[in-house]
Write a structure and sequence with these properties.
The chain has 3 helices and no strands. The chain is mainly alpha-helical and 173 residues long. The model has no long low-confidence stretch (mean pLDDT 83).
């Protein structure tokens, strides 16, 4: 309770300080106004008239040096912009190509693994013992001599003489 009473007194003191300060500012402004009024010439008050100024017909003077500076600045900034954009393009292209290379490497590894699996499967399927076992299960037997007939009509066991034929040359007259 005592604390709230102290806080209330402090608030009253701050309010009275603000009020006294406002009164002192008002009094000071009144004194300044009176001093300015006494300093004026004659008993007539000052009258101010508004004057409308039309600046629509004013043309800015051409400054060739400023124009040259602006052209130089613009050209330098354009070149700088092109260089920065080229760098950015190359950077992102390099990143994109890196991702593409990694994807291709993964695809090559996948194809190698698939190729290895297919070779293993081929080796298992072409095993002569496996083929012989499947043939016997199906009731097949080895062919007897003379049972196989070749379309050429020759003896399959007969030796073959190797021949080399030179291409015929034509004489042009």
């Amino acid at each position: 309770m005592a604390a709230s009473a102290i806080a209330g007194r402090q608030m009253e003191m701050m309010g009275s300080r603000a009020q006294s300060r406002a009164e002192s500012l008002t009094a000071r402004n009144r004194e300044l106004y009176e001093a300015q009024r006494r300093a004026r010439r004659g008993p007539t008050p000052e009258v101010f008239f508004t004057k409308h100024i039309d600046n629509s017909r004013i043309v800015k003077a051409d400054d060739p040096e400023r124009r040259r500076e602006m052209r130089t600045f613009t050209s330098v900034m354009s070149v700088l912009f092109v260089l920065v954009m080229t760098y950015v393009w190359q950077h992102f292209s390099a990143i994109e190509i890196g991702y593409h290379v990694e994807a291709q490497k993964m695809q090559v590894e996948q194809l190698r693994e698939e190729n290895r699996q297919l070779r293993l499967s081929e080796a298992q399927l072409t095993d002569p013992g496996r083929i012989d076992k499947l043939a016997k299960q199906l009731g097949l037997a080895e062919p007897q001599p003379g049972q196989v007939v070749r379309p050429e009509g020759g003896d399959p066991n007969a030796p073959v003489l190797a021949q080399a034929n030179a291409p015929a040359m034509q004489i042009v007259q």
